[in-house]
Design goal:
The chain contains no helices and eight strands. With 126 residues, it is mainly β. This is Protein ApaG.
Length: 126
């Protein structure tokens, strides 16, 4: 991991959105709130994202694209950027992980890992 990648930490909180889910139609909606912390000494800009989403049936899907929620935020040193998005699974349990492509003021690109996190309905034991 480059020193640039270690300057970014990603925290995640998830929530099951029961009111917009239809378990009898295999539709489970989850929101996730991401906080990206810039622990380094220079601005970093989020350019793109790449997600790998796996449900409990082993179905994998990948999502990639520019920015997040329509933005390519620049995060100052010792500050953070937070956003909320969502995904729909066909099962009540899944895992998401991925990476952000970031760039520093010198134009150096680096990948910031998004650690794997669980999406599950409340009370699910597996």
């Amino acid at each position: 991991m480059s020193h640039l990648a270690s300057s970014v930490r990603v925290d995640v909180q998830t929530e099951y959105i029961e009111t917009q889910s239809s378990p009898d139609e295999d539709k489970y909606l989850f929101s996730y709130t991401i906080t990206i912390h810039n622990l380094g000494e220079e601005n970093v800009t989020l350019k793109s994202r790449h997600w790998c989403i796996t449900d409990s049936n082993g179905q994998k899907s990948e999502v990639q694209g520019a920015g997040v929620v329509g933005q390519t935020p620049t995060i100052a040193p010792n500050s953070s950027y937070e956003y909320t998005s969502g995904t729909v699974l066909e099962t009540p349990l899944g895992v998401m992980e991925g990476q952000y492509t970031m760039i520093n003021p010198l134009g150096e690109e680096f990948k910031a890992a998004i650690p794997a996190f669980r999406l599950s309905i409340p009370g699910l034991l597996h």
